[in-house]
Specification:
Elements (H helix, E strand, L loop, with lengths): L7 H14 L9 H17 L1 E6 L4 H4 L5 E3 L1 H10 L4 E5 L2 H10 L4 E3 L8 H4 L3 H10 L5 E4 L4 H5 L3 E3 L4 H7 L4 E5 L2 H11 L2 E3 L13 H10 L4 E4 L5 H6 L2 E2 L2 H11 L3 E5 L3 H9 L4 E3 L13 H10 L8 H16 L1
Parallel strand pairs: 1-2, 1-3, 3-4, 5-6, 5-7, 7-8, 9-10, 9-11, 11-12
Bound molecules: 1,3-dihydroxyacetonephosphate (13P) and iron/sulfur cluster.
Keywords: 4Fe-4S, Cytoplasm, Iron, Iron-sulfur, Metal-binding, Pyridine nucleotide biosynthesis, Transferase
Pathway: Cofactor biosynthesis; NAD(+) biosynthesis; quinolinate from iminoaspartate: step 1/1
Catalytic activity: iminosuccinate + dihydroxyacetone phosphate = quinolinate + phosphate + 2 H2O + H(+)
């Protein structure tokens, strides 16, 4: 592996960008990023491309090259409005598929095709068809963390940011919600609606236990605990607040807790800490191996070679798009 190009000139040119992340990236690490950052900014112009980055991306991606950042819901909404010819999705595959569904005339690239998701992997379109046969007439809500083929079999999609609202909007006493068992249980507890679910779990959030939260509180007096609803209900019950990644960021911005822990993927704390130096972030670190497949070097390569293009079979795209659009209309 060759070392990245670096020179004092490059350091000077990229100093304003390094300034954005200096509180979370040691200066000794910046030479490993600077050349790729500069190349990506140039390639975005040459390729008429924008980069959409999820809140779990590392800070040099999130703060230095991304044009649009957010949770799954915000990225879906924003993808629809992109006018540039190319969208690079710095996130996981289902997010790139959702962007393609919502803005089909654009070229959508994912820098590493292996950036998957344990939830998306947990269920197939055939599984959804079997559930529909087994529970005729029960509406099927599918989490966006699924393949387009699974979305195509469902009535409506949801994200962690709108799950409760979507389930309530159906006005049904019983709903099938797939594939995240914990998200479904958390929504059922909040709404009182009976939910039939699936045994899918996020491999990052399922690692947190109620005992972890109690130990964190014991070790850090005054700690405010914010948890993602992909955590088990017993973990959410130990938290002060539960919400999507964007809702957690909003909570920090609005309440400015002196000391906080974000019970979620750990790059997010770095990204939020950059914006809130006054807040102390306690950081147990659970990384998502899929999100972490995306790097500056791979984004650069993606823009250089225009790979890997995400395509969706037309027969799947039409019903999958309908399910996502129904969600956005609620
Ligand atoms: P949100 O950003 O929509 O809360 O999703 C979290 C997540 O795990 C995405 O992979
Ligand atoms: Fe999937 Fe969990 Fe990784 Fe998000 S954090 S991509 S839900 S495995």
């Amino acid at each position: 592996m060759s070392l990245p190009a670096f020179s004092p000139d490059l350091m000077t040119r990229t100093a304003p960008l390094y300034d954005r992340v200096k509180s979370v990236i040691p200066v000794i690490e910046w030479p490993a990023f600077a050349d790729d950052v500069e190349a990506i900014l140039r390639l975005k112009r040459e390729r008429d491309a924008v980069i959409l980055a999820h809140n779990y991306q590392t800070p040099e991606i999130f703060h230095c090259v991304a044009d649009i950042v957010g949770d799954s819901l915000a990225l879906a909404r924003q993808a629809m409005t992109v006018e540039a010819q190319t969208i690079v999705l710095a996130g996981v595959h289902f997010m790139a598929e959702t962007a393609k569904l919502l803005n089909p005339s654009k070229r959508v690239l994912i820098p590493d095709l292996r950036a998957g998701c344990s939830l998306a992997e947990s269920i197939t379109a055939a599984d959804v068809r079997l559930l529909r046969q087994r529970y005729p007439g029960v509406p099927i809500v599918t989490y966006v963390n699924t393949s387009a083929a699974v979305k195509a079999e469902s009535d409506i999609c949801c994200t962690s940011g709108n799950a409760r609202k979507i389930v309530e909007s159906l006005g049904a006493p019983r709903v099938i919600m797939l594939p995240d068992e914990y998200l479904a249980q958390n929504v059922s507890r909040d709404t009182g609606i009976e939910i039939i679910t699936w045994a899918g779990h996020c491999e990052v959030h399922e690692r947190f236990s109620p005992k972890d939260i109690r130990q964190l509180r014991a070790g850090h007096p005054g700690l405010v605990v914010l948890a993602h609803p992909e955590c088990a209900p017993e973990v959410v019950a130990e938290a002060d607040f539960a919400g999507s990644t964007a809702a957690m960021i909003d909570y920090v911005g609005t309440h400015r807790p002196a000391r906080v822990v974000l019970v979620t993927e750990c790059s997010m704390s770095d990204n939020v800490a950059v914006q809130h130096p006054e807040v102390e972030f306690v950081r147990p670190c659970n990384l998502c191996p899929h999100m972490k497949r995306i790097s500056l070097a791979k984004i650069r390569r993606s823009l250089e070679t225009l790979t890997h293009e995400v395509t969706i079979n037309a027969a799947i795209a039409a019903p999958a798009r309908r399910a996502v659009e129904r969600m956005l209309a609620v």
